[in-house]
């Protein structure tokens, strides 16, 4: 009985091991690899676009028309009527200084003129009498000359008094600081109660309509720049927007410290309210031509070689390309050979992509986490 039990147990174990050693149906059949899911934003169709070649220019926006308004007479600042950012018209009063001293000077000068006029009138009457008596030989020649000298001196005194009157009136007028042109107050330096000496800065006034791009280029690129060439540039604070203009002047004197050359760029009209002093960087279009361009983000670089991932017939292929000139305005790269216009490539290739992998274009809402690349903005 005991021997029979052991044999049955052995048989059961053998049957169990045999069952475990058989491959299951699911393990025997390999899983089918799912295609990569792509949305339209993942793809880019290559086209011929403009390649701009020329030097990089960097600098800032600066107003051509600006004025530092300084005190032309000394006195206490009584009022400051405008503040930073205020729009003013030509002739508007911006600040007032204490006019008391200069009003008194004006009154004194006016009295001096009236006194000189009276003295001159008396001297002229006396001269007329002396001339009449001289014709009758009733006065000496010396008396006549004395009358003429007194009349001439009175005339000179009147002229001096009138000059002092004009000066006093000008000084009184200068106690009111007025805008020399229409513009915007860029900086206020004084407040009511300040003591203003002659030459003290009160305000800085600029004309926003006169803002231009004042930039610098490397000295070794100055030979490529000519007046009238187009310029495109970006300005800090205006994200995603490009401004355009043209080379207005080339400074004939290089910066003595950096040896860079200043380029003055006249900006094209824009609806944007520009702010002076902001940093700007752009590109002078010394040469333009049509070329096959791709964004730098689409390129995969391995050492000295560059590749694009092309999607053709729902299959991904890694294509070697030859690079040409970069367009530093847009961050794009010229493709000389390896692929042609009309080809569809991945805009942002990422992850472990495989040569010959299947891909499937799906609506953006249906794209799952299997997407091989992240969507991004176009060129």
Account of the 3D structure:
With 379 residues, this protein is an alpha+beta fold. It folds into four domains: 36-50 and 289-366, conserved putative lor/sdh protein from methanococcus maripaludis s2 fold (Beta Barrel), CATH 2.40.420; 56-64 and 210-285, Beta Barrel (Elongation Factor Tu (Ef-tu), domain 3); 66-97 and 175-206, OB fold (Dihydrolipoamide Acetyltransferase, E2P), CATH 2.40.50.100; 99-174, Helix Hairpins, CATH 1.10.287. The protein has helices spanning 2-21, 25-28, 100-135, 141-173; strands at residues 36-38, 43-45, 48-53, 56-63, 66-70, 75-80, 87-88, 93-97, 176-178, 183-188, 195-196, 201-206, 211-217, 230-235, 242-250, 261-267, 279-284, 287-295, 300-302, 305-312, 315-327, 332-337, 344-346, 359-361. A hairpin with a 2-residue loop joins strand 19 (300-302) and strand 20. The longest helix has 36 residues, at 100-135. The two termini are 88 Å apart. Mean pLDDT is 85; it is low at 1-30 and 367-379. Belongs to the membrane fusion protein (MFP) (TC 8.A.1) family. Pfam families: Beta-barrel_RND_2 (PF25954), BSH_RND (PF25917). Keywords: Coiled coil, Signal. Residues 106-178 form a coiled coil.
């Amino acid at each position: 009985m005991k021997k029979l039990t052991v044999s049955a147990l052995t048989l059961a174990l053998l049957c169990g091991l045999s069952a475990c050693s058989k491959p299951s149906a699911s393990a025997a059949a390999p899983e089918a690899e799912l295609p990569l899911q792509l949305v339209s934003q993942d793809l880019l169709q290559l086209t011929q676009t403009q390649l701009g070649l020329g030097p990089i220019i960097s600098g800032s926006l600066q107003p051509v028309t600006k004025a530092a308004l300084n005190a032309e007479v000394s006195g206490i600042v009584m009022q400051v009527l405008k503040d930073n950012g205020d729009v003013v018209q030509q002739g508007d009063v911006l600040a007032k200084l204490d006019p008391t001293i200069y009003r008194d000077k004006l009154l004194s000068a006016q009295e001096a003129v009236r006194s000189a006029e009276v003295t001159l009138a008396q001297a002229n009457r006396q001269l007329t009498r002396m001339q009449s008596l001289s014709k009758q030989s009733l006065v000496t020649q010396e008396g006549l000359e004395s009358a003429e000298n007194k009349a001439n001196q009175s005339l000179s005194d009147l002229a001096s008094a009138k000059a002092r009157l004009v000066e006093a009136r000008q000084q009184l007028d200068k106690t009111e600081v007025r805008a020399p042109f229409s513009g915007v107050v860029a900086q206020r330096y004084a407040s009511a109660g300040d003591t203003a000496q002659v030459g003290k800065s009160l305000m800085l006034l600029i004309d926003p309509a006169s803002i231009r791009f004042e930039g610098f280029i490397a000295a070794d690129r100055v030979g490529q720049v000519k007046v009238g060439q187009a310029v495109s540039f970006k300005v800090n604070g205006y994200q995603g927007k490009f401004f355009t203009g043209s080379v207005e002047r080339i400074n004939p004197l290089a910066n003595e410290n950096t040896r860079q050359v200043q380029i003055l760029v006249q900006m094209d009209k824009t609806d944007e309210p520009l702010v002076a002093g902001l940093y700007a960087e752009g590109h002078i279009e010394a040469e333009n031509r049509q070329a096959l361009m791709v964004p730098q983000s689409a390129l995969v670089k391995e050492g000295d070689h560059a590749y694009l991932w092309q999607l053709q017939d729902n299959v991904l292929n890694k294509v070697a390309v030859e690079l040409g000139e970069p367009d530093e305005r847009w961050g794009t790269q010229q493709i000389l050979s390896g692929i042609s216009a009309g080809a569809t490539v991945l805009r942002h290739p990422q992850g472990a992509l495989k040569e010959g992998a299947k891909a499937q274009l799906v609506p953006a809402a249906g794209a799952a986490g299997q997407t091989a690349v992240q969507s991004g903005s176009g060129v």
